[in-house]
Amino acid sequence: MIFQDLIQKKAESGKAYADLFRLIERIYNCEDISPEAYAHLTFASGLPVDMLLHVIKWFFIEQDVTYWNYSGRGMFMSGVPRPE
Fold first, then answer.
1. For every one of its 84 residues, what pLDDT tens digit does the chain have, with 9 covering 90 and above?
2. Which of 17, 26, 27, 73 lies at a C-alpha separation of 20 to 30 Å from 37?
3. Three-class SS of residue 84?
4. Structurally, how many domains does the chain consist of?
5. Which domain holds residue 13?
């Protein structure tokens, strides 16, 4: 469901999705994201951006617990569609 949501957002707006992808990369790299960083991002499709980013952060945490060497985090990130 998360990957499908991201695909819809990418199709809706490539530029906005590129910004969203950069935020996901920051979360992947264990950086904190402030609400101001994504306040400008709005999509008509799928989950709200704040909810999506929080869920993705939770998935990264879950993968860190399950796979201790970043492999799980990397597996999840490899499924995130890259911007063009």
1. 899 999 999 999 999 999 999 999 999 999 999 999 999 999 999 999 999 999 999 999 999 888 877 688 888 999 999 998
2. 73
3. coil
4. 1
5. 2-78
The pair phi, psi for residue 12, each rounded to 5°, is: -70, -45
43 found inside a domain = yes
pTM of the model: 0.92
Alpha-carbon distance of 26 to 48, in angstroms, equals 18
- The rounded distance, in Å, linking the Cα atoms of 6 and 4 is 5
Residue 84 lies in a domain: no
User: Is 74 part of a structural domain of the chain?
Assistant: yes
Question: Looking at the domain assignment, is residue 83 inside a domain?
Answer: no
